[in-house]
Amino acid sequence: MNYKTVFIADPVRSERIQLAKFLSEEIITVITFLSINDCFKRPDLINCDLIVFVPRKDKNEIKHLFNIKKRYRQIPIILLLHDDFSDLDLLEISKNGFASPYKALNFEKVREIMLGQLAPEGLPARTEVPHPVPITDEVQAALSPRPE
Fold it and tell me: What is the pTM of this model?
């Protein structure tokens, strides 16, 4: 399985960081941005596999989505709704050229959609990394539980 990249666009720093930590996986690189326009300022550097967009009043509104180029609208997008935007019309967003929009009400739903899009066959097993300093048999014996 190839590594995947997720862009998060949210103007609220604390929630953006929490979401990035919640979505992080061994095979997924999460990059955060203040706005959707920042995601594509340097598109030649890194390719995006999924966008998580958090609409906020006066900062990150839905109209900002419609300003991105049509080729980036083919990337799956998850709209994480909050109190400011309690409901969105996905049909309107689809009509404006977005291939696969999804909406989520919480971090768990975002993670579920993300894994369904990026890893439909499931996540690979975690790789076991050996300890950088090998433990000697004497130390291992000292660490093992002693019989009573």
Answer: 0.76
**Distances in whole angstroms, Cα of residue 115 to Cα of each of 4, 44, 109, 137:** 11, 25, 10, 41
- CATH value at residue 82: 3.40.50.2300
Rounded to 5°, angle at Cα 38 from 79 and 22 = 45
Which amino acid is present at 130? P
Within a domain: 148: no
Tokens of 80: 């994480």
Asked whether residue 132 is domain-assigned, the answer is yes
- pLDDT tens readout for residues 69-125: 888 889 999 998 887 776 778 888 888 888 899 999 889 999 999 988 888 777 666
The owner of tokens 């990394």 is 129
